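Can anyone check this?
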Amino acid sequence: MTRALYAAGWGYVALCGLVLLRPRVAPPSAPHPAGTPFRGEAAQWFAEMKPFCNTVEVEVQQQYRPAPEGMQGAGYSAACYALAGKIDRARDVIEKLPASQRSPAAGIVFDVGHPVADAGDDQSAGPIMRLVVEYQPENYMALYHAGMSEYILGHTDLARAQLERFLEIYTPNDGWRSNAQTVLDRIAGR
C-alpha cells in the first residue's frame, strides 16, 4: 500500500510539473471598434504613462514625455487626459488630427475609458463617454454609458437624448436595452 501511495504522489507531482511547464499562449489582443489594436509604440507609451494620468501629474508628464506621433499616439494621449478629467485637453489633442483620424483616436479613448464606466465611476465615465460620442456618434456602448452616467448624476435631458439614441442603434433584446428602457421610463415618470 505504501508503494502505491508513493507512486501516486510522484505521479501527481509530475502532472503538476507538466501543467506548470507547458508553453502559455497569450490570448489575441482585441481591437477597438475602429480596428486599431492595442500594441506598438503608442500602447507602450500609454502603459508607462498611465500612472501619471491624473489631475496633478498629467500636464507635466505629457510635456516631459510626449506621446508618439500619429493617430495612436494622439488617441492614447487624449485617453490619458480624459482619465485625468481634462476632457477639453483631450478634445484638443483629437482635434489636431486630420478629420479622418479623429474617430479612430476617440475609439482608443473609449477602450481606455470603458473599464471606468463598467466600474461604475459615473462622474468620470460620463464626460469620457460624451467625448467619444462627439467623434463616434454611432458607438452604442459610449451612448449607453454616457446616458446612464448622466442619469445617475441627475442630468435627465442629456440622459434621455443619449439613451434614446442608444435604443435606435442597439436592437438586441437583452439587459442593456432593458436597462436603458427602464431608465427612460423613470425619466418619463412611468
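Reply from J.R.: I decoded it. The chain has ten helices and no strands.
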